[in-house]
Amino acid sequence: MSEDLRYPIGQFSFDAATAPKQREAWIHDLARLPGELEGVLDTLDDDQLDTPYRPEGWTVRQVVHHLADSHMNAYIRIRLGLTEDAPLVKGYDEKLWAELVDARTAPVASSLSIVQGAHSRWVTLLNKLAPEDFQRTMVHPQSGPGSIEKYTALYAWHGAHHVAQIRNLRQRNGW
């Protein structure tokens, strides 16, 4: 498996020292994601949606449903972080979720709607936060404590990461 196919924009990294200067760009990336995702899926048929983006990887359809699942969870975690004191947030097995029948077979339109709605609310929320709100934390069972700032960076990267996987597959296959 090629690392470039799996991580076409590189792996996630976060520097807390420079984060406040990048916050606006991350929020902008989150705002753009629904349109970018819709654009990269434009004209794909069911056979193309059921094509893995890399050998032994998820299909495009699974990636789209994963984005909806993941970003829905992230939005909820941030809301918990804003309303509770360092809450323990729920993790989930994304690989098992991607194998559920809906993730393998459902039309992508439903997940596009979820991404559009969640991102609309998420961006509205983030744009109204005070700088100190970005330092509030949540505790994830696998990755430990993380600030709203870090989650904002992570999910801006996460969306771009998966859009790039699909875009690269389209380019490789001449779609």
Structure description:
There is one protein chain. The protein is mainly alpha-helical. It has a single domain, classed as dinb family like domain (Four Helix Bundle (Hemerythrin (Met), subunit A), Up-down Bundle), CATH 1.20.120.450. Helix content is 64%, strand content 5%. It is built from 8 helices and 2 strands; from the N terminus they run αααααααββα. The protein has a two-stranded antiparallel sheet. Strand 1 (137-140) and strand 2 form a beta hairpin. Helix 2 (19-41) packs antiparallel against helix 7 (109-128), helix 2 packs parallel to helix 8 and helix 4 packs antiparallel against helix 8. It starts with a helix and ends with a helix. The mean pLDDT is 96.
